[in-house]
Each structure stands twice: as C-alpha cells, then as structure tokens.
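U., I forgot to send this yesterday:
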Amino acid sequence: MKVLVIGGDGYCGWATALHLSNKGYEVGILDSLVRRHWDIQLGVETLTPIAPIQTRLQRWKVLTGKSIDLFVGDINDYDFLCNSLHKFKPDTIVHFGEQRSAPFSMIDREHAVLTQVNNVVGTLNILYAMKHDFPDCHLVKLGTMGEYGTPNIDIEEGYITIEHNGRKDTLPYPKQPGSFYHLSKVHDSHNIHFACKIWGLRATDLHQGVVYGVLTEETGMDELLINRLDYDGVFGTALNRFCIQAAIGHPLTVYGKGGQTRGFLDIRDTVRCMELAIANPAEPGQLRVFNQFTELFSVGDLAMKVKQAGNTLGLDVDIKHIDNPRVELESHYFQAKNTSLLDLGLEPHYLSDSLLDSLLNFAKKYNTRVDKDQILPTVSWRR
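Result:
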C-alpha cells in the first residue's frame, strides 16, 4: 500500500513516515518545511538537533535499505498538490500538514489568519484533489481533542445521539474550541464530513490528545533520525516544558491552578494508531472519528509526576504556579471515550513507563541547548 504523509517533516509526521516505511508500506513525504521557517521567525529551536530532511531520508535509506519519496511544497498550492499526488498515486493520504499550535494562532491577527487559511484551505485542496482524481483514496486526518473543549458531559467519539422534543438523531458532537487553531480544526471536521456525504469520499479523523515522547523504534535507530522535543512557549507542551525545567533546575511553571485536564498519549501510540486506521479504512461516504489518547491528566498531575521522576534522577524539582496566559476553565469535568482504537488492537504505552527514557533523559542529555528565555509563556489570549 502506498501512503503519502503530508507534513512528514514534523513531529508526528516524521515518526509516522518512518514507522510505516519500517512496516513495509511504500511511503512518500510531502512537506513545505515551513515549520523550520517558523522556528527561525520566532527565535526558537527544538531541544534535540534536527538534521535537514534530505539528510534524514538518506540516513534512513542507508540504515534500512528503504526509500521514502520527498515532495517539497505547499498544499495550499493546488497545482503542486495535484502534481505530487499524480506522481506518487497514494492509496492513503495521512494529513499532518497544518499549523498545530494554539499559542501561535493567538499571537495576533496575522497569525490567526495564517493558521486558518493554511489549515482550512490546505484540507479543502486535498478534498478536491481526492474528489477529482483519487475518489477511492482513504484520508487519515489528524484532528484534536481540543475541538470538543471541556463540556460538562462525557465526550463521545465524534458523534452523539440526542433525544429532543420526542425525536432522536445521531449528530456530530458539539464543538467548543479554545483557540483560533482549534477553530481551524473544527472547520476541517465540518468540511471533511460534508465532502464524504456529498462526494462519497472516505475519511478517518483522529482526534488526538497531547503527544509526548521522543523515541519510537525507528527514531531511536540513529541520532540523525531523532525527533523534535519542543519546549518553548509557542510550540512546546506543558509536559515537555516541565521536563526541560526539571533538567536545568528551573521551577515547573503550572498555569493557574493546574486543574486543566486533557488526554495524553505516547508518540509510539500515535504511529500505531495511524497504522491501525490505514489498515482498517473507512467505508465510502463515511467520516469516522476516533478519540486518540490513552490517559487523562491534569496539568498539576503532570507537574507532580515530573517532580517525582526528577527526584529519582537526583534532580531538585520545585513547582510554581503562575498566571494562566490562556482563557480556559481551570477546574472542570473531563471524561472522554476512547474505545475504537483499542478495539482495533492498540496496546497502549503509559506515561509512567515513558517519562524517564523518552523525556527526562533527553532533557538531561541536551540541557546545554536550552534557551531559558523561551521556557515561559510569551503569548496571551487576552492581548
């Protein structure tokens, strides 16, 4: 099977492309490399040293004998996208090719517009290319659990059955996105649902939680294949930030009360979820939604886990609460279903088994690369 990974130079995309190649899929990567450009613009850098994409792919071929095709360009350029699809002829399109940072989308008007145009138009272009020339192709799209927000009821997997005034229907689950980035993902979901309904396309939308970890079987083969570990205030996650802070002796900065709760999963589970979705495609006309996470943690929970793990390494770790730069509920109900991928065969990894090997040890190893000016929030939702 031929799989084109759009956004294959990024954190989830790179690990997925290598995993699928290692499993015998014929893989292509399509990427504009704009994420590297945004890092330069913002003056930030991943903790782990990332080689040029061509160097990474050459090293992969030397190590495994497997080639991965590379198409460098922007999916907002419809002609480029169509030409690339015709050259590669994918059976499945895995779509990671979006601006994926909520803080980035909240910097100012320009970044909000960039995020929505890049994400919504790029996905629309993919849908039209599939409609015209690849109607049997399966789209596996990376969504986000952040589309749901924090409702005071259980979160179902994409759809909810409602009874109202004596009538009953199954409808898309209500969305309460928390940033212009998350809004762009909601727009994607609606557009994909509409395209599947009217054109008979097939798609799987993986509403992913927060991903953590550097290591997969493939990215651990060689330092040139190493994955990103972003910790800055724009692209970094709270868990990554805590691990970096622990490694350099900086207090762990918990936003507000620390009660914000989200779904989390190991990068090894991300690549396995992608493989499962590809191997078990949606039916024509169907948009499936799988909630892709394995555990639920609050920000305060994460800080305590990093503190405890840091203590086992001899690190003196303190926790400090700071003003929350985001506009979000800090104490709320959060229960979400996640059975579909487990039913397909996912065998989860857990944070307790990954925190040292795939996070804290990397933070210690590369701590001289930490830019201390980038570990505190730089973007305010109220600005």
